[in-house]
Amino acid sequence: MIYKIRVILDTKDDVFRDIEVRDKQTLFTLYKGIMSAFSLQGEELASFYDSDQNWNQGREIPLEDMDNEDSDQTMADFYIHESFPQIGSRMIFVYDYMEMWTFFVELMEIEEKKAVLNYPLTVYRYGIVPLKAPKKSMDVINLEDDEDLMADDDAAFDDLDLDSDIEIDDDI
User: Fold this and answer.
1) Which of 34, 52, 89, 96 is most deeply buried (CB count within 10 A of its CB)?
2) What's the pLDDT tens digit per position in 107-134?
3) What InterPro entries would the database entry show (predicted)?
4) Contact by Cβ (8 Å): 43, 77
């Protein structure tokens, strides 16, 4: 069986690739396919994460076992058919923990056809991959301007009597 997987770069512009892999290949094979499809260097650490339909990040499946006990499983331990049990199954892929290239990965189609080529195979490309990882927008809270944080303008941290409930024994 051949699995068609759509890999979408988390960026404001539409950038995605459709990659075909065989069901008996592993997440490591899909990792190699993503690296090739998006022209990434392949020299940084990466992980897949289980995901639900709302793209909430779950269990991590790393590229390499970083634990000294060799007890954790890696991408090479998970078959495609296990990781994507049905059409619509999703994962999140993160490459390069410093730059945080983030991709949404979803199983689009399962075909019963004979594998005739070397897989993974990029079968569709859309959009231009940026030269640098897209920056994540983060909401910054300005503590001085936020009225909700300071309900009583007259109260200040210095004004609090933190020791008022403590009984002090003068006999010590």
Assistant:
1) 34
2) 999 999 887 778 999 999 999 999 888 8
3) MM3350-like_sf, Plasmid_pRiA4b_Orf3-like
4) no
Rounded Cα gap, residues 19 and 106, in angstroms: 10
Q: What is the 3-state secondary structure (H, E, C) of 108-133?
A: EEEECCCCCCCCCEEEEEECCCCCCC
Which amino acid is residue 28, in one-letter code?
Answer: F
Number of domains in the chain: 1
The model's pTM: 0.76
- Tell me if 53 is assigned to some domain: yes
Q: Is 20 exposed, middle or buried (0-12, 13-18, 19+ CB in 10 A)?
A: buried
Strand 16-22 to 2-9 pairing: antiparallel
Within a domain: 149: no
Whether 133 maps to a domain, the answer reads no
